[in-house]
Each structure stands twice: as structure tokens, then as C-alpha cells.
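== Item description ==
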Amino acid sequence: MGFFKEFKEFASKGSLVEIAVAFVMGAAFGKIVSAFTDGIVSPLIGFITGGVNFNDKQTVLKESTLVKDASGAVISGDPGVVLKWGQFVTATIDFIIVAFAMFLIIKAINSMKKKEIAAAAPLTTTEVLLMEIRDSLKR
């Protein structure tokens, strides 16, 4: 019974709700970044590099030997081996954009927390005296 009680406490603290909200927001943000990469970044890279589209880049290691009938169904053969490295490059660009955006968000939150801590904590007389001594020693 201790496990369920512990889970109930965890869920009722709000941590679970915060995690769920963060997960949904992260998924939506990931879609936005993918759309940004596919719609803006990739075309710009293609324009700069003369029409290169990384999503289409691949290296064929082994050609396909598939035999199909008249309806297009596969009768026999080997599908081959293809390394789709362009999709990996695009996903890496997506990751870098998400990581940079998260860095900026966390940096902004941390700076707001520092301001709140500085404003919320009044200095004691001992701290004021120590600061005065420090400042006088600097001169």
C-alpha cells in the first residue's frame, strides 16, 4: 500500500501536472521547430548551396533487386541497403535549434530568479558591515 500512497502524494503535489504540461509543450514546440527547419532553414541552405536538399540525400550501399508483378506487388528479391544521412542532418539541425531555444529560455528564467532572490532578501546589519569592510579594503 506504500507504493500507491507515494504515487498519490507525487501526483497531488503538482509535479506530475507540470511534467505533463512540459511534455505537451515540448511536443508542440518540436513540431514548430520541424516546420521552421523544413520550411525556412532547409530552403535557405538549398538556395545557398545551389539546390541541395538534405532530406533527399542518401548513400546506396546495396542496390535493390526487387521483382514486382504487373500490379506492383513484390514477388521476390532483396530491398537493398540505403543510408538516409540527409534525414539525420535535418534532425540534427532540429535538435540544435530546440537545444538553443531551451538554453535561452532557461537562461531567462534563471536571470529572473536571481533578480527575485536579490530583491526578496534584505541584507542584515552584519552583511552590510561586511560589505563596507570589503569595499574599504578594495580602496
